[in-house]
């Protein structure tokens, strides 16, 4: 038996079984401590690479987010789907936990799992005077110690062979926080693994407790860092859990209908289909990175015996800055800044590559403009709002000139999203007939 039963929380759940339970979901915070980025040079490094993460304001974004969590005060708590730090720096983990403590101090639960960047990362550096100086990352044990009060302390069950655990929200709802990271073989030659997998012992632990949940008619919401299914034709290798169909079938067998994930940085909803049980679907919701335009998080409402409702919300950084008398114009007009940052980062990266392919400056500008509009929409799950404008534009048609390059395939993969809204999903929990797990609400258009 590879499970440790830790704590059985009864609380006042017997009197609150009919009340809605609300969570906030966020992922890929990629926080870096000022102790590791002494002069703020990392933002310039990321900008030079065309990275969409807004590292210049990472600390302010996270502070604004923490403020909104405290104002919202979700009854279920805050769920973070991994990649808490930039590259697993110990000082970043410690400093981030200091920030998160403000939420705990208000009586709000936090549940975290690590991402592929968070543990045993050999890319953990201190950035100072144009130098990268290796600094200490964290071990799995240290990760659990730092975030002990963020799910581990109150866990109902913990897996001995990973950082996976199960938390009891009340007597009819569990959270499965499943560690899918492959950090064991990280080394100086291979500093950080992108891929995700689940070891055999963890599968045994998982099935043991999912069976228990089903027998007791307990609903389970699952959380992973890596995706349960392929969300994009091009962005799946290293992003989707290896041998993912095995996990899909296990979820289907034990009536799990929702998995929350991160890692991709894009906002995207897609079902996985069981091959063994007819009409069984499990929805995977990849929440976009908090540091990437539109700087979103999500609310998740569990309505007992009725529904689970997921909806994204754009972080209001401008209000946070105004309330604190901050005079930085970018923060005071943050939505505008955030979009322009994503647009310009995409434009610079594509424009110069197109020029190297002997396209004219005019053609390169037209084509770069198209992708620069699509990319922020793709990452925020809002392609449905602009695809028709893009589809009929002359700029989009010019892309046929270079149909052989990666970015043309990338655009095609984005335009496939034209009929789907990826920011809302409501699933039925009713067990009459075949309604359990069916979609009640999704603002699909087209």
From TrEMBL:
Pfam families cross-referenced by the UniProt entry: CNP_C_terminal, Metallophos
Cyclic nucleotide phosphodiesterase C-terminal domain segment(s): 316-421
Organism: Intestinibacter bartlettii
PANTHER family per the UniProt record, alphabetical: CYCLIC NUCLEOTIDE PHOSPHODIESTERASE CBUA0032-RELATED, PHOSPHOHYDROLASE
Domain Calcineurin-like phosphoesterase as annotated: residue spans: 23-266
Family under the similarity heading: Belongs to the cyclic nucleotide phosphodiesterase class-III family.
Keywords, ordered alphabetically: Hydrolase, Iron, Metal-binding
Name of this protein: Metallophosphoesterase
Superkingdom as given in the UniProt entry: Bacteria
